[in-house]
Design a protein that fits this description.
By secondary structure, the chain is α/β, with parallel strands linked by helices. The protein is built from 21 helices and 13 strands. It has two domains: 284 residues, 3-Layer(aba) Sandwich (Rossmann fold); 170 residues, N-(1-d-carboxylethyl)-l-norvaline Dehydrogenase, domain 2. α13 crosses α18 and α19 packs antiparallel against α20. The chain binds nicotinamide-adenine-dinucleotide and D-Mannitol-1-phosphate (44H). Pfam families: Mannitol_dh, Mannitol_dh_C.
Amino acid sequence: MSTPLNRSTAGERTGSVPPVRMVHLGLGAFHRAHQAWFTQHAETDAAHPEWGIAAFTGRSSRAADDLTAQDGLYILVERSAEADAFELMSSVVEANPASDSPRLVALLSDADVAVVTLTVTEAGYHLDPSGRLDTDDEAVSSDVAALKKALPEPAAAPELRTAAGRLVLGLDRRIRSLGDRSGIAVVSCDNMADNATAVRNAVLGMARACQDGLAERLDEAVSWVGTSVDRITPATTQDLRREVAEETGYDDVAPVVAEPFRSWVLAGEFPAGRPAWENAGAEFVEDLEPFERRKLWLLNGTHSYMAYAGQTAGHRSVAEAIADPEILQGVEDFWDEAARHLTDPRLDIPAYRESLLARYRNPRIHHLLAQIGKDGAQKMRIRAVPVYEAERASGRTGAAAARSIRAWIDWLRTQDPEHLEDGEADALRQALAGAEPARALLDVLRPGLGQDAHLGSLVIAGD
Ligand SMILES: NC(=O)c1ccc[n+]([C@@H]2O[C@H](COP(=O)([O-])OP(=O)(O)OC[C@H]3O[C@@H](n4cnc5c(N)ncnc54)[C@H](O)[C@@H]3O)[C@@H](O)[C@H]2O)c1
Ligand SMILES: O=P(O)(O)OC[C@@H](O)[C@@H](O)[C@H](O)[C@H](O)CO
C-alpha cells in the first residue's frame, strides 16, 4: 500500500517551508521539471531554503487541487536512457487556481516577492502574427472589459481569463501599494522568439487597452527578463504515477518525468533579487539571441518537423520518428540549413547536434508527437519560417525548412478541421476551406508568404 504524499508523510526529507518570493503562472509539467528544479537546486542550505514558489494554474484548477492536497510536494523522475532517479521536490509551496485573483494581488503586493515566471504556452500570450496583443481575441476583450471596471476600485480583484490580464491587475496593485519599492522581474519561460518582448507586448498591450498611462507605469516597475529554457518534459501519465508509487512508496497524484539534460540561459535585471540559479547551472548572458535561436531552431524546429512528418509516417513518439532513416535525414538537412546562421563561436553546434540526437533517441522518454504538434501555426512561424528566410536571404534554396513547412501543411490537411488543437484554429479552418489551402496556410504563418513563388514551388506542388 502506498502512502499519500505531503509534508507530514515526507518528514525530514524536505527542509523548512521557504517564504514565497516567486510567483509562477502556468502550473504545468515543465515548470515543475525546470524552474522549480533550478530554484530548489540554487539553495545553499537545503534544510533552510529561502525561495518558495507560489504557483497558479493557467486555466483549470486541477493541478492546484492535486498539489494543495500534497502541500505542494511532488516527485520528479529524471529518466535517462538507462535508469530513473526519483527526487522529492519542495520548492513549490503554494498551488492556486488561476481564478484566485485576490491571492495573486496579495502576493504581488508583497515587496518580498521578487520574480514572476510564466509557462502558459505560446497560445497563452494571445499575440497576433506581428507579435502584438490580439485585442480581437475573445478572452482578451473579456479581460479588458473586466479590468476597465476593476482597476479604479482598489479592492476589486475579478476573475480574469488571460495571464496578461492577471499580471496587469497584480502589477497595478503592487505599484499602488509599494510605490518606489515595486520593482520586479517578469520572466517568460515559454518557447518563443524574444520571449521578454512577447510577455511585455502582451502585458503592456492589455494595460494600454484598459487605462491611459498604465502601460508606462508598469513598464517602469518591471524588468522583462528574456530566457531560453530547455528540458524535454513529456506529459504525465497514469503509468508514471504507478511507477512512482512502486519505487518510492508514495501515491503522488502529480509526478513529473523529464530527461536528465536541463539548461536555462537568462538575460536581464532582477531589481528585487533572485535565487542564485547559477548554483544549479543557469547561465546569465548579455545577448540571449544566439542561444535562443540555437534552441528554437535546432531543437524545437526539428521537434515540429518530426511531429508532422513523423505522425504522417505512422510514428507516435520522438524516439520512433528519429529511428526512421528518412526522418533522420530531414532532421540533419534542417540542422545543416539552420547551422549556417548560427555562427557565434560560443554555440558549439556540432556538440549541440550530437547531444540532441542522443536526447531524441532516449528510448525511455515517451515524448508524443501529438503533444509537440499542438499549436503548430505559432510554432512553425518561429521554428521553421526564419530558417527558410535566412537561407533565401543568403541565396540558397531553404529546401529543408520548406520540407518542414510542407510536412505541417500535409499533416494539417489530414486532420478534422473541427478538432484542430491550435490557438489559431479559426484562421487554419478558413485557410483549409479555401480554393488554395496550402497558399492560404502559408499566409497564416506570415502574411504574404503564400505569394513566395520559390516556396510555392517547394510546398504547394500538387495543390
Ligand atoms: N514540456 C516541455 O518539454 C517544455 C520545454 C521547454 C519549454 N516549455 C514551455 O512550457 C510550456 C508549457 O509546457 P508544459 O509541458 O508545462 O505543458 P502543460 O500542458 O503541462 O502545462 C501548460 C500550462 O499552461 C497553461 N495554459 C495552457 N493554455 C493556456 C492559456 N491559453 N492561458 C493561460 N494558461 C494556459 C495550462 O493551464 C498549464 O498550466 C510550453 O508551451 C513551452 O512554451 C515546455
Ligand atoms: O512545449 P512546446 O509545446 O512549446 O513545444 C513542444 C516541444 O518542442 C518542447 O516542449 C521541447 O520538448 C522543449 O522545448 C525542450 O526543452
